[in-house]
Design a protein that fits this description.
Elements (H helix, E strand, L loop, with lengths): L1 H12 L5 E3 L8 H9 L4 E4 L5 H12 L6 E6 L8 H17 L19 H10 L3 E5 L5 H9 L3 E6 L2 H9 L4 E5 L5 E2 L14 H11 L4 E4 L5 H9 L4 E4 L1 H4 L8 H9 L5 E4 L7 E4 L2 H5 L12 H15 L22 H11 L1
Parallel strand pairs: 1-9, 2-3, 3-4, 4-5, 5-6, 6-8, 8-9
Antiparallel strand pairs: 7-11, 10-11
Helix pairs in contact: 2-14, 3-5, 4-13
Length: 352
């Protein structure tokens, strides 16, 4: 059954290899998306922060460079309400770091539009551009937007960190489900519950979701070499999605301090924290995560946390330090290879 699903999933999308490059906001270049798609995989463009007009232009630019399938990714979070009191408490926690870097403390509450909510403008841009795949993180947007994306024949993917989330996605017309294991780097895709105790590792989660839904399943989390790819396929996954592995590629827009931290890190060096955005996310531990490890209960809600730490992140990276910036990485970080994105796709596929 798994083999039939795999063949159908790849064939329907025009893929020749079961490798999907994860959308990683700020780090994915056009060159990376093109290289992955040209190698037979699925290149993914992170578009949450792109202006609507730029979404259409970016997809058009990619179309000129690859005939392979393209995915466009968005966060599917809901609008949040600022909490001035909580914001003040969190900024007080951050104050020593602002002082250390010689930055003026920001006393203005962050805007909820720091991370735009998927809406009419984004959906209309996709209707104009008609991408092959639209993927989401943190659930799905409103049902009428899903219906409009179905009308342009876009394949819809979203992440699930538990079996109940996978079932919910299938019930709400998701075409394939990304089973995101606890090993995965970056933000957790949780949307029904953020309780990490309810979430499992990739190799336990994938077969459970495969058994629970009828749509194809994509494995994600801690996969960094051909053994992981082969294991995920053997467990019933139709494809695998990798993020951390692609951060090592020359096409990745990764600052030097971050790249050096990736090179030195191993899986045991990563932790799950909320301090960078308000959502649980796996990163390489650094001085910032250790200092604020016991302060996460004071953290402001997503996406306000992003704006709160942004000045610190920018200043520390500019100074050549990885002590403060979020070093997104999964537990498969030790498998990283400094090779081109297309070559990585080919090696993973051939060896697996």
């Amino acid at each position: 059954m798994a083999k039939r699903l795999s063949n159908a999933f790849l064939t329907n999308l025009g893929m020749t290899t079961p490798i999907i490059q994860a959308p990683m906001t700020g780090y994915v270049s056009e060159a990376m998306v093109v290289a992955v798609s040209n190698a037979g995989g699925l290149g993914s463009l992170p578009a949450t922060l792109l202006p609507p007009d730029t979404i259409s232009e970016s997809i058009a630019a990619l179309r000129k460079r690859t005939q392979g399938p393209i995915a466009v990714n968005f966060l599917a979070h809901s609008a949040a309400t600022p909490d001035a009191d909580r914001d003040a408490v969190w900024r007080a926690r951050l104050a020593p770091f602002f002082d250390e870097l010689g930055l003026e403390r920001d006393t203005q509450p962050p805007s909820p539009m720091t991370v735009p909510v998927f809406g009419e403008a984004q959906c209309a841009a996709l209707e104009r551009a008609r991408p092959d795949v639209v993927s989401f993180h943190l659930g799905l947007p409103a049902e009428h937007f899903v219906a409009r994306l179905k009308a342009i024949r876009a394949t819809i993917l979203s992440s699930a960190t538990t079996v109940p989330e996978a079932r919910w996605l299938e019930e709400h017309r998701c075409d394939a489900i990304i089973a995101q294991g606890l090993e995965a780097g970056g933000h957790r895709g949780s949307f029904l519950s953020t309780d990490l105790a309810e979430q499992g590792g990739t190799m336990a989660l994938v077969p459970q979701i495969v058994d629970a839904v009828r749509v194809p399943v994509v494995a994600s989390g801690g996969i960094g070499d051909a053994r992981g790819v082969a294991a995920a396929i053997a467990l019933g996954a139709s494809a695998v999605q990798l993020g951390t592995a692609f951060l090592f590629c020359p096409e990745a827009q990764v600052p030097l301090p971050y790249r050096e931290a990736l090179r030195k890190a191993r899986g045991m060096d990563t932790v799950v924290t909320t301090i960078y955005s308000g959502l649980p996310a796996r990163v390489i531990a650094n001085r910032f995560t250790r200092a604020l490890r016991d302060a996460q209960d004071d953290m402001v809600a997503f996406p306000f946390g992003i704006a709160a730490v942004a000045p610190l992140v920018g200043a520390s990276l500019k100074a050549g330090s990885s002590d403060i910036a979020p070093l997104w990485a999964g537990q498969g970080v030790g498998f990283g290879q400094s090779i081109g994105a297309g070559e990585l796709v080919r090696r993973l596929s051939a060896a697996a």
